[in-house]
Specification:
Largest sheet of chain A: 6 strands, parallel
Strand order of the largest sheet of chain A: 3-2-1-5-4-6
CATH superfamily of chain A: SPOUT methyltransferase, trefoil knot domain
Distance between the termini of chain A: 36 Å
Structural class of chain A: alpha/beta
Number of domains of chain A: 1
Oligomer: homodimer
Number of helices of chain A: 6
Strand content of chain A: 15-25%
CATH topology of chain A: Alpha/beta knot
Order of helices and strands of chain A: EHEHEHEHEHEHEE
Largest interface: A-B, 60 and 60 residues
Radius of gyration of chain A: 17 Å
Low-confidence stretches of chain A: none
């Protein structure tokens, strides 16, 4: 399945950290692409640094001018547009119908998204009907889509390899270039 | 089960939005309490406003002086301390052992947490071994602990009630005081 995330409504500076978290979640939880508006380019550098240390995936970031154009293109290509919102139908009531799709565009927004997004989306999906966080919503939604398998996904050509530990911290350095400050 | 979250390593201003997201996730995903250090009190007001609109739960915020004291007290009371970190054991390999506990203190940190936390914690648990977001980690971890049931949890005395909708947006105002800007 091809899954991309579209982040809309970024507020400069105030939302930089939240957008960085969204980007890292999109990458770690199996998205192929993140579309974001013209935000601080340090976010792209952060993701690049993470990929250098912890492994390449097919994940890409693309900057868009107009979110409606992104949605239009996805719809034309047969993609389903899923808007994550507390006003939607509970994810667990729709996940089986969602899993059979070939292409998903997952739309997440900052505090308030344009009203028309609710009508443009093929599905408004709620990760619970309580307000919380688009980062959390994206993670739990992708976790449902990939049925938990994304948490054991392997990433290629990493500089470091974690040896999972119940206590303590253990990392194997593969590249000989041990810049990781543990 | 009694579950609290302890957030450590908050950096003033820079992390305010992320801490707000963490607080809202802790509330929405079934925690009883969030311990945080002396951060911007607007975070407490945001959670209070959310509770007024979307319902009361038993969720409380407590400000701590020393995170080690919080952990010590929980351990003394028989609570298990779970540190969420990419260096830990995959959550899906430990969740059955975790679910039988009566009291959990879930520790999440900003970018870098003190090294000793890895040794003090009863379990270092990874929501995947890739770097992403403590907000996402908290949400997915709590979702595993409560087996998805937290997404349909009812909250008491809300001013508004969402009528879940696949398209569009539908909210019932219960209090007559319709200040919600839809």
């Amino acid at each position: 399945m091809e899954v991309a995330t579209l982040r809309i409504g970024h507020r400069l500076v105030r939302d930089d950290r939240v957008t960085t978290h969204s980007a890292l979640v999109a990458r770690a939880f199996g998205c192929n692409k993140l579309y974001m508006s013209d935000v601080d380019t340090s976010i792209i550098h952060t993701v690049e640094k993470v990929a250098n240390s912890w492994g390449r995936s097919e994940f890409l970031i693309e900057i868009y001018d107009n979110w409606k154009e992104v949605i239009k293109t996805w719809k034309k290509d047969g993609g389903k547009v899923i808007h994550l919102t507390m006003y939607g139908i509970n994810v667990d009531d729709m996940i089986e119908a969602i899993r059979v799709e070939a292409k998903l565009l997952v739309v997440i927004g900052a505090k308030k998204v344009p009203r028309e997004l609710f009508d443009i989306a093929d599905m408004n999906i709620a990760v619970g009907n309580q307000p919380h966080s688009e980062i959390a919503a994206l993670a739990v939604f992708l976790d449902r889509v990939f049925n938990g398998n994304e948490l054991k996904k392997q990433f290629g050509t990493a500089s470091y390899k974690i040896i999972p530990n119940l206590r303590g911290k253990n990392v194997e350095c593969r590249s000989g270039d041990n810049r990781l400050n543990l």
